[in-house]
Amino acid sequence: MNTYDQLAHSLHYNMFQMVVVANNGSYGGSNAYAPFSEAYHRQVFHLHGQPQASIAFFEIDNIRDFKSRKPNGGNQGAYKFKTPPAG
Description:
It is a single chain. The chain is α+β, with helices and mostly antiparallel strands. The chain is built from three helices and five strands; from the N terminus they run H-E-E-H-E-H-E-E. The strands form two sheets. The chain has a three-stranded antiparallel sheet. A two-stranded antiparallel sheet has the order 4-5.
């Protein structure tokens, strides 16, 4: 079952921010998505649902660039952010 995997994926498209969904493995894994413009950079990590403890750490290199990103995407320092959804 991948209920939480799909939930994280859909939230990531609707929200212009970091999305982290943590789950114990009953309905899918744990995910983290960042609002980067390239699709292959967006998924920060994905842990498949397991009946055992898993720990993941991630670090944003330059938090100042990430926090002060422009509302209509574009390049900002080392990151290129996606455009927010319509409306």
